[in-house]
Design a protein that fits this description.
The complex is a heterodimer of chains A (210) and B (300).
Chain A (H helix, E strand, L loop, with lengths): L1 H10 L1 H23 L9 H31 L1 H5 L6 H33 L10 H25 L4 H21 L3 H24 L3
Chain B lengths: L3 E12 L2 E12 L3 E6 L5 H8 L7 E6 L2 E2 L5 H4 L2 E4 L11 H11 L5 H11 L12 H13 L5 E5 L7 H18 L2 E5 L3 H7 L2 E6 L2 E7 H7 L1 E6 L13 E7 L2 E6 L4 H8 L5 E5 L3 H9 L9
Parallel strand pairs in B: 3-8, 3-9, 6-7, 7-8
Antiparallel strand pairs in B: 1-2, 1-4, 4-5, 9-10, 11-13, 11-14, 12-13
Helix pairs in contact in B: 4-5
Classes of the chains: A mainly alpha (210), B alpha/beta (300).
Chain lengths: 210, 300
């Protein structure tokens, strides 16, 4: 199993490097915001960049899932691996673990840095103590949902249906998170979506001829 | 444990409504080298893919080492060496990396034997797989399949792309492997001289059916090709059971018949031929006769 995970990471190392770079950019932006924060003139520019970066990151995570599956299909990686002492479930599980690790490479340093910054500097407005954890959880689940969409898109011969589905769901989820905030409902909705998406990918991957 | 390492029961496979395999039954006992023959598109690769669990069967069941193909566990897969048609290796990997991956995934790895194979085939390990020639890829694939010390070796056209010397080396290795360890080999090949050299049992697929499944020597004994000359023009109503082919030209009739016996000879003699001579047949001749589109070959 470890060999499979290592293979996935090494084959898609570019996404891990990109995740680390994005994470560093977000942390640098956070540090700069804290350093130059003026309550009379709140910064607008970094928020704009932040939103753009978030969009790029979401697309990147989706692309990672799609690339993993697409290259598996075109290079017939699973066809080779399936003739070794591994099952298809193990191949897919290793792939998903690699995806989760890429997401954590991106989000974990940001979450740690944010927690440290909030401890070092008193926020201008009082904050709910579990807010960082809730934001981290919701963002993690959203990123994972995007990754699952990527997995489905990459494995399907017809990529149009899952892509349109993904766009539709993003249009629902993003406003929902913006309006309602990263609460329990969002977590539950995202978990349901991820479960459905994973079951579908699992089923497709296990039943398709290699 | 069942003595049959490979078992196929009433296997049928359809692709888009087209029947590729139609009720195949096959048993390969332990220690047997089974050569599966058939023309292009006869379904040899499909059988192997179904056996390995890479393709679902439309109907029927297949078993490898007492386990149903659809549910082969990693432990069972670890006892099976496989060389797929077209030598599907991860093209963008360096050879050394691919070897390491296969080694890490294997349950057992005979490094000494693998090094011997790599040296014998003179394979460069510092190049990418896509930079290797077809023959080199075939050799690498064979080495990877054999390094795990497999109990069962499934080879789909393993000598495809190999030059004559490498092909001989491979056959020698395959024979050595089977003789030393009493292992089973199922292999498909278009090079019938290879099959003739190493197989002790052959199966011939034609029109989705396994028309021949018997030991090689028995097949050669059972299928006879006869050149019959009649005093006048050859009779139109000559019919023998299990007749595979019949060609008539003036006074001469060439018939290929399975299970030639005295009874059939007596029937032939009632037509009073002036001469009847046996035409020697190689495996290639038998294969051509059995797989001709107008062949009447029946399962033997």
């Amino acid at each position: 199993m470890l060999a499979l995970i290592k293979r996935e990471i090494r084959d898609h190392i570019v996404y891990f490097i990109a995740a680390a770079i994005c994470s560093a950019i977000f942390i640098a932006m956070g540090l700069e915001t804290v350093h130059e924060y003026n309550p009379r003139n709140p910064p607008v520019f970094p928020i704009g960049i932040g939103i753009s970066l978030a969009a790029i990151v979401t697309a990147g995570i989706c692309a990672m899932g799609a690339t993993q599956m697409y290259f598996d299909k075109t290079r017939r990686v699973s066809a080779l691996l399936s003739t070794r002492p591994v099952s298809r479930s193990m191949i897919l599980l290793a792939r998903i673990i690699a995806g989760l690790l890429a997401i954590l490479t991106l989000l974990a340093p940001i979450a740690v840095a944010t927690t440290i910054l909030l401890r070092l500097f008193t926020p201008p407005i009082p904050m709910y103590s579990g807010l960082v954890w809730e934001i981290f959880t919701a963002t993690f689940l959203l990123a994972f949902a995007c990754y699952c969409i990527g997995l489905q898109t990459g494995w399907n011969t017809n990529a149009l249906t899952p892509t349109l589905g993904a766009l539709g769901l993003t249009c629902i989820f993003v406003p929902l998170i913006l309006i309602k905030g990263p609460g329990l409902q969002i977590v539950v909705i995202l978990q349901l979506f991820i479960t459905a998406s994973l079951v579908r990918t699992w089923n497709k991957f296990l039943s398709t001829p290699l | 444990m069942d003595e049959n390492v490979i078992k196929i029961e009433n296997l049928a496979k359809y692709f888009d409504g087209r029947c590729v395999l139609d009720g195949i039954n096959l048993k390969v006992p332990q220690g047997c080298i089974y050569g599966l023959l058939g023309r292009n598109g006869a379904g040899k690769t499909t059988i192997i893919r179904i056996l390995l669990g890479l393709e679902p069967a439309t109907r029927g069941q297949t078993f490898l080492l007492d386990t149903e193909s659809a549910s082969l566990s990693p432990k069972v897969r670890g006892r099976i060496g496989c060389v797929a048609e077209g030598h599907n290796l991860i093209q963008n990997y360096k050879v050394s990396r691919l070897i390491k991956l296969c080694k890490d995934l294997s349950l057992q790895w005979n490094d000494e034997f693998f090094r011997l194979l790599i040296d014998t085939f003179n394979l460069p390990t510092d190049r990418r797989v896509r930079e290797l020639s077809m023959g080199m890829r075939a050799q690498l694939n064979l080495a990877l399949a054999m390094a795990i010390d497999p109990e069962l070796l499934i080879l789909d056209d393993p000598t495809l792309g190999l030059d004559t010397v490498a092909r001989r080396q491979f056959l020698k290795l395959a024979i050595g492997l089977i003789q030393q360890k009493d292992r089973t080999i199922l292999f498909c090949s278009h090079i019938l001289s290879d099959v003739e050299r190493i197989a002790d049992r052959v199966g011939i697929l034609a029109a989705g059916k396994l028309v021949v499944d018997c030991p090689l020597e028995e097949l050669k004994e059972r299928v006879k090709k006869l050149r019959v000359i009649f005093p006048e023009s050859a009779p139109q109503n000559l019919y023998l059971t299990e007749m595979i082919n019949q060609e008539t030209q003036g006074r001469e009739m060439v018939i290929t018949v399975a299970n030639w016996n005295r009874q059939k000879q007596a029937i032939l003699e009632t037509f009073k031929p002036s001469s009847c001579t046996e035409v020697p047949m190689s495996l290639e001749d038998i294969f051509i006769e059995c797989t001709r589109p107008d062949s009447n070959s029946t399962e033997s």
